[in-house]
Design a protein that fits this description.
179 residues, Rossmann fold, five-stranded parallel sheet
Length: 179
Amino acid sequence: MLAWAPTIVWLNGTHGAGKTTTSALVQQLIQDSRVFDAEKVGETLMDITPRLPWTGNFQDWPPWPPLVVEAARRVLDCTGGTPVMPMAVLVEEYRREIGAGLAERAIPVRHFVLHADQDTLRGRIKGDTVLGPSPFRLKHLEPYAEAARTWLHGEAEVVDTTHLTPAQAALQIAEAVKS
């Protein structure tokens, strides 16, 4: 186990990049850490009845970014340690709002983007034996590519998972956070 000061380890990237699998492996390498899947915040908003007006993505609802920040803060207050947070955020405004909210609360973040080329991502999504092929996940490939080209890769540490196993990616991330 590696040890360091508590920091949110944010694993960003699109569907098929390996966020969920890698986050569980990173958690095993970081002492006193836990996986905090912030996507569940959005799922909670989806359960409101009557339903909020559908926008196509729960991240577009105004309460989502500040609730992610507040949930992360509360988890840290309750548990301490290092949250490993798999969460795809491909809209620059939302990434900035979440980052600013965490910074205002003096919560340090190491932001990683798990990247793979489009063919690899498409193949992973189509071959997913757990979730199955998903048109929703496939339609996020181009927005990811655009975000990667224009801002996302400039704001994070990029880990190319095209030819890495999830264990190799997790070790690379854990070692980067330690250094």
